[in-house]
Amino acid sequence: MSGSKRVGSQSVELKNRPKIIAATSVVGPKEADGPLGEYFDIKLKDDKNGKDTFEKAESSILHTSIMECIKKGNLKEEEIDYLLCGDLQNQIASSNFAARDIKTPFIGLYGACSTFSLSLSLGAMFVDGGFANYVVSGASSHFSSAERQFRFPLEYGSQRAVTCQWTVTGAGSVLIGSEGNFPEVTYITTGKVKDYGIKDVNNMGAAMAPSAVDTLYMHFKDTGRNPSYYDCIATGDLGRFGRQTTEMMLKSLGYDISKNYVDCGESIYDNARQDTFSGGSGCGCSASVFTGYFYKQLMSGKINKILIVSTGALMSPTSSFQGESIPGIAHAVSIEFNNRGGN
Amino acid sequence: MSGSKRVGSQSVELKNRPKIIAATSVVGPKEADGPLGEYFDIKLKDDKNGKDTFEKAESSILHTSIMECIKKGNLKEEEIDYLLCGDLQNQIASSNFAARDIKTPFIGLYGACSTFSLSLSLGAMFVDGGFANYVVSGASSHFSSAERQFRFPLEYGSQRAVTCQWTVTGAGSVLIGSEGNFPEVTYITTGKVKDYGIKDVNNMGAAMAPSAVDTLYMHFKDTGRNPSYYDCIATGDLGRFGRQTTEMMLKSLGYDISKNYVDCGESIYDNARQDTFSGGSGCGCSASVFTGYFYKQLMSGKINKILIVSTGALMSPTSSFQGESIPGIAHAVSIEFNNRGGN
């Protein structure tokens, strides 16, 4: 057996502490123009990235984020044991077509906007369990492919509700391995599906908040850690209203996260100036914010401990048409960088 | 580190040999009427299973297969550490809504019709690596939800090509654990995405065959095993033409699998009598045939060693509209039951 063990009812401790060796973010022009713009690694001037469709553009930026990660690690794609990724497109087409051009065994995931922390979780477990020497975990989304997938063709010029979020055009990938002085994945809390009966697809934050709360609560309970253990707790894309709800619900359960809590979706845009309403969303949101911003904060020593909790709304256009409510899910990954500079 | 280790360039050996403790298949009336009908555990009289949509029906049969597995293992859903599943619906809605009603951390997968062996692979690795005591891995598909997802509304009454396959209405789930005398998962070969430029969505067998060939070839090469090592090699849903292509391509690469090779999709229907043309397909095809038929063959001692290779076509309706070819993927899982009756 590996040294890893289950902790509490819903978490695992990764005893071999897999390392995040490299991270790459690729974002569109709107994300580059936001408050975190300076941190992103690759910024597109054209959100079609020279392709003839938005879907192909999304796939190309995911591909770029993966290949850049492999390059940063001084590795060849043949040395990567598994590529894990997912996205919002039907049949995760962005990931499938990105993987087609990479010579690596491929595992397709779908967790809606929770996909990045799901991918990171599984990648870290593969390395921890001795199944892989190197893994790349990634996720992507694109505003324009998501709009026509889940909402309306852009040409309609639909009005947006104040609780609406703006799907991030972006991709983020990490290279995970077992050696070197890098931020380490220490605990994983995998989420259950939670459904509080929300049916409003223009208020995804409300649909996802209960799952974020449940996963955070279970993480604290399983590990015995308090919110203050972390320098930062970052949910994926709850937006302004979902972030508030999460804070309040957790407070009623005895955990005050208000001092060190941010939501990637709320942070990626200047919501008033950029007309993004409640904030960013999409698999690419927490993927690009983690790989672009937080990874650099970890590497530079500005933070040492982060809990990243990507959040997903698990409806499909068909399930919404058929009157179903919106189930949510959230996966938490604890990343720590305590042993800097040797031993 | 766990005892597990990488073997060759694309495979892992599971040293702790996770056990498949229970398996449950649920199928529709057409599958029950086919040559394997007597082996399936639960047979629907109504392919809507009392639900008002095909999508909800599919989700309900997946849910049934999962819950029956847990029951057969004399476990409660709270004792299952991870539920892993996927399906063909947009945003894997069948799996998400099945998981909503189960109190278990959930991991959503998408590998098109390769999903069952993907789910089985990851579940076995979780148990092998010490991340889980019990896992349930499953997959589902439904003829009528797939037709309107990928092809045409049933009401059109479209004519079918001779190379067409018939999506299986079915679900299959397995309960994986670490103790007891049960069939064991010994090797996993995770596939790469292969695309030979096939664009005909009515000939999925041709699109998937190269990926089946690549994964089988890598499995034999990595493990040093010959096809004759196995009592049975079963691909997922290549159908009649895809099966022939796979056999011929592998022969040209030096491996003759003709003596012990079957395709689940070719076997599940009496294709001439049941008008299923080239055979069955869908995530539920290899899932129901493995859990319904092969698992019983293993348990009864009729076979001792099987290599199950579910095969997936990774296009989406959108990618096909946009002129993309159909990438394929296949994942191989070696299951062996050598130590019967204790020691």
What can you see in these coordinates?
2 copies of one chain form a homodimer. Chain A is of the alpha/beta class. The first copy, chain A, contains 10 helices and 15 strands. The first copy, chain A, has helices spanning about 30, 55-70, 95-100, 115-130, 145-150, 205-225, 240-250, 265-270, 285-300, 315-320; strands at about 5, 10-15, 20-25, 40-45, 80-85, 105-110, 135-140, 165, 170-175, 185-190, 230-235, 260-265, 280, 305-315, 330-335. In chain A, the strands form 3 sheets. The first copy, chain A, has a 7-stranded mixed sheet with strand order 1-2-10-15-14-11-12, sandwiched between helices. In chain A, strands 4-3-9-7-5-6 form a 6-stranded mixed sheet, sandwiched between helices. In chain A, strands 8-13 form a two-stranded parallel sheet. In chain A, helix 2 packs across helix 3. Chain A is globular, with a radius of gyration of 18 Å. The two termini of chain A are about 25 Å apart. At the A-B interface, helix 3, strand 6, helix 4 and helix 10 of A face helix 3, strand 6, helix 4 and helix 10 of B.
